[in-house]
Design brief:
Helices cover 79% and strands 5% of the residues. It is mostly helical and 243 residues long. Strands 2-1-4-3 form a four-stranded mixed sheet. α1 runs antiparallel to α2. The structure holds zinc ion (ZN). Zinc ion (ZN) binds next to loops. Zinc ion binds next to loops.
Length: 243
């Protein structure tokens, strides 16, 4: 294999490491978002349960006030009963007092239901608090792990970039600029072997003369279709023998 091809293959490997490392860093960003989301969701659930507790408390107090109001009315009507000498008025007051008692009973039933809801909600609050604590605890661990992985990746990328520059310095300007053009396009298969007479990058059949020339060629050759660097492989030899 030509020395320049070997050097280009090393360059390609380093670039793949760098590209992969950068992709992993993007992935870590996504992981961070989902870790934060779990805590945010647990926090929202806890806030909802707290809000529900407040609302139930307000409801309970309102029912108690209503019942007390009815109680006050009963006292007033009872006094009026004692004072009146009119039978019709007396009977009307009895009816009003009965109504008040019915209302009180209804308010008390409603209050019992609210108290039951408060018990259920208190359990929910306990659960949401436990969920939030767990999510926050896990979040701290997960985030510090993600940070550590990112630091390591950045270190690895930095080191590979230094090595990459050293390798690139061994390659002539023309070859390197053709390689870099494909790298910038996002290609990861830039230096490829020829397989069964076809380019290993784009898989297009190469002209027979090109394949024949490749084995003895002392210079860098490019695929006429996808412009990547092509080089001789054993596979190409076998294909030629078969033909
Ligand atoms: Zn090609």
């Amino acid at each position: 294999m030509l020395e320049i091809i070997e050097t280009l293959l090393v360059l390609q490997n380093r670039d793949r490491t760098i590209v992969q490392g950068r992709a992993e860093i993007v992935g870590l960003g996504i992981e961070r978002v989902s870790v934060n989301e779990r805590s945010a969701n647990a926090e929202a659930a806890q806030a909802d349960a707290e809000q529900a507790a407040k609302e139930l408390e307000v409801k309970k107090n309102a029912l108690e006030m209503e019942a007390a109001g009815e109680q006050t009315k009963i006292i007033t009507y009872s006094k009026q009963q004692l004072e009146t000498k009119d039978n019709t008025q007396y009977r009307a007051l009895v009816k009003q007092i009965d109504n008040c008692k019915k209302n009180i009973s209804n308010f008390e039933t409603d209050e019992l239901m609210v108290l039951e809801e408060m018990d259920v909600n208190a359990e929910t609050q306990k659960q949401t608090k436990a969920d939030l604590d767990a999510a926050n605890h896990d979040m701290a661990t997960a985030l510090s792990e993600i940070d550590e992985r990112e630091t390591n990746l950045q270190k690895q990328i930095g080191e590979t970039e230094t090595l990459r520059a050293e390798t690139a310095a061994q390659i002539d300007e023309d070859t390197l600029s053709r390689y870099d053009r494909l790298l910038k396009k996002g290609r990861s298969n830039i230096v490829v072997g020829v397989e069964h007479g076809a380019c290993g990058g784009c898989h297009m059949k190469l002209p027979t003369a090109e394949v024949a020339n490749l084995k003895s060629s002392q210079e860098v050759n490019y695929c006429p279709n996808c412009t990547c660097v092509i080089y001789y492989t054993r596979d190409m030899n076998l294909a030629a023998e078969e033909a």
